[in-house]
Amino acid sequence: MNSPDRQLKWQQGALIGLRFLLGWHILYEGVYKLIHPEWSALAFLANAQGFLSGIADWMVSNQGVLNTVDTLNTWGLIVIGLGLILGLFTRGAALAGCALLLLYYLFNPPFIGLPPGGPAEGNYLLVNKTLIEAVALLYIAVTPLSRRLGLDMLRKKYHA
User: Fold this and answer.
1) What is the pLDDT of residue 43?
2) I need a labelling partner for 148 at 20 to 30 A (CA). Which of 76, 111, 115, 138 fits?
């Protein structure tokens, strides 16, 4: 039989593992974009079919805006990923990651009648991996257990 303390430690460990894995995925996406200067959000935005497709068209039509979007996307992913992996400003990193992933989702939602907005790994209807990751990040942001192991602990200790 598990004691409540032991169960809490397992839950905490699972959340920290989830935080780390999401951070790794997000960080790698940002680093990949950084080391491949030919990468651009152009293809993703040009195929946008969701609620934000009008904004995507505007971004694609303005090279300065597209360059800014590319830079913000790359460095945003890197900072968010590092924050999650290191457990530093975890709540902010998780909320920023959630917001960014929801933007991706809204640019290309898997709705009935919309063709896929680019290469797809599977067949989705309303729920895809982007939405699942966004909700997982929201859970990490609102769950104190996910912030226990990381630099946030040291930050609290020395700024308390």
Assistant:
1) 94
2) 76
